[in-house]
Amino acid sequence: MENPANWDQGSMRAWSKAVFRNDHRLSVAVAALTTEPGELYSQAIADELAITQAEARKHLAAFESVGLLEVDPRIGDREGAGRPPRSYRRTDDPFWRCLEELGDRFRRHAPPRTGQQR
What we know:
It contains 5 helices and 2 strands. It is mainly alpha-helical. The mean pLDDT is about 85.
């Protein structure tokens, strides 16, 4: 997952609240966009965005309900104790390409370098 410090989380939350009537919907969508295959599950999103697992799960389920995400059947084969996390994968919906462009609005760009390189 891309480092959340690369994003202006405050602006993203304000924009998300105004457009989606929820502070975290856009942040979870951007996290889903930038998460590596096999790592898209609620606890990973919650940890990265400092939100509860229930909050992350709610948004992932909403994206699944409209066909933006689907359960990744390959992930259920993990060994170990307990039930494996419900892992998702993005669908080929054009939403993700639009989100990539929208996400640039909130990406923190590295400041220009000054001085000479050695």
